[in-house]
């Protein structure tokens, strides 16, 4: 017999339920499989390659190693309203178009240097595009700030990619533990700690 | 049925209900605590306590579906993956917004004691006298001195850390050592003190995060993870689960019944006493009656008023306590979301270790001492200084290794603070039953009709200006004042719906939190507040609950109830 039914039975017999039961509090959310997103494996691989240009591997792992593509697929599917999903999707195509235009090749075929050149250009374009429309501060805000049903002007697709990459990277285990300072149980607080250049920031 | 008879019934298991259960059981009463939501066991059920951002599929962001299902919660920060399931289900538990009202509820054992911000301050002497002196609403029937010993009592047990500052405006208490200010906050505190000649203070936040262990209660001191609202595996902050519930359980006198929606207090009009309560089982929809000699109503300010409104309606159409004409009226919250932030330059060689679950506090200074404004009462600030993290983004760096390196290092120090202002008790600010709308169990729901008034609007100017002025005086740069929109309820400090007073004609409760019309019914949560002060209120609910429980038991023994 299920515990809940057992509880009901006890409750109806005495009016007093036992303390306990299967608490549904702090709902545990299952990982979202790729098949439930708007993206396929090729998309995720592409996003990983693109994100790696924004946050490359240096002496610590980069966006690809953190598999930010998979996280971005889930966030765009579940946390974005349709208008932004469209902007983001079209952006993936637009990256290739821009790549063809500048280098005559698809993005995936570009060298590291070419990718960086292309993305720095897209980044400047994005800033100009957003400024012209009075859209500010997206990079440092949360990817979920938009609501379904509200009207808004979507920012440049590249800004979305950049924000999603930074967010997904720094909240990933790789980003938080290898690139940032991560201590699960600090144990004490010191508000006057000496800092030298190069020391890492705390993961939040 | 014999098992349905108790000495006392406590409605609700949150901050105030937990205290009622502890005090009454420790004094030997057989107590039934009724809680409308599910049980959550200490530690065992804190399922996300050890999770990190990467363990959540959406990295703790709310999804569009969550936003659709929680149209109120999504208006502010509480809607996220890590605390999902800990907020009252808005589809099952609707309410009516005559005017916008943001109601953040936790319906489960422990109530909002598991989710609260833990800031714990005493009201001061003037708080209890202000209504009378200024001719506003009604006078509190008690004074600071009546509550002071009970503040002592609850602080010791709950475990509050804080500094002793010797300020009349914010009385000291039985504190554990404070959580320290960081280097920037300390310097700013010293400069503010000097610039305002000792009239303004920046002190460590007084918080129910313990800096010393309580081995006898099985509680460890805080480990500086700042994940309090996921439940603390160390029992290091005050919650029903970590503190009052185990004490009550230890007596062997407590029965806790989750999934029990108390829908009515049963009233004997001849004896003028409550005789028990009627409960709907939230899971089975069956109805039960439980009898008792005492009823403590601790369902949180609005739900306690709701319960009174649904009780003894055959005697008073507006419910138990409505003979005063004040039941559901005088709603208060603390208005906030206004303040300032600034850059703190010159601290690039300093950082911090650990995640401190509190910040600094600025006690009220307006309309205090010789200060006189064009409004009454005042406000305090809560804030902190810290170095920015990766979320700051750095637009100038474009993309690539430089951007990554920059964001992997701490950014500049920033300091910010938000004011919490006192809201006056206006009779026209009220909640009432809307019988046309019902919840999942067919019960009528509350309608909210609350707005801030002139006094608050004037105060908000100072709340911003003074913050700017203080940061400027402390040599901060790039000082920016802010005001984001505030809707009543966002302060999550609902108060006043069954106020205490000296006259049954203008108050619902007397000086001992007894309902005038039913002396064996005690309401000791935020509903009882006659005025709101500007400090976070929950410590006061704890003190008033312990005080009322002591009185109730002595009256019971004397045969007066
Ligand atoms: C995010 C957040 C931050 C906060 N920060 C602070 C802070 O820093 N300092 C501070 O002082 N306060 C703070 N608060 C407010 C604080 O949580 C409340 O003041 C406090 O919990 C109120 O205690 P209570 O016992 O009245 O109600 P609650 O703790 O809300 O408990 C009420 C209980 O009653 C139950 N209940 C309701 N109706 C019924 C019914 N009909 N039958 C049976 N059971 C019922 C509910 O399910 C709930 O468990 C904060 C709150 C939140 C949400
Ligand atoms: S910060 Fe302290 S009180 Fe909060 S969860 Fe961590 S250890 Fe517990």
From TrEMBL, chain A:
InterPro entries: Gluconate_2DH_su3. It comes from the Bacteria. This is Twin-arginine translocation pathway signal protein. It comes from Alteromonas halophila.
From TrEMBL, chain B:
Residues 42-334 form the Glucose-methanol-choline oxidoreductase N-terminal domain. InterPro entries: FAD/NAD-bd_sf, GMC_OxRdtase_N, GMC_OxRtase_C, P2Ox-like. GO terms for molecular function: flavin adenine dinucleotide binding; oxidoreductase activity, acting on CH-OH group of donors. Its cofactor is FAD. The keyword Flavoprotein applies. Residues 425-544 form the Glucose-methanol-choline oxidoreductase C-terminal domain. The keyword 4Fe-4S does not apply. It comes from the Bacteria. Keywords: FAD, Flavoprotein, Oxidoreductase. Signal peptide: none annotated. Belongs to the GMC oxidoreductase family. This is GMC family oxidoreductase. It comes from Alteromonas halophila. The lineage of its organism: Bacteria, Pseudomonadati, Pseudomonadota, Gammaproteobacteria, Alteromonadales.
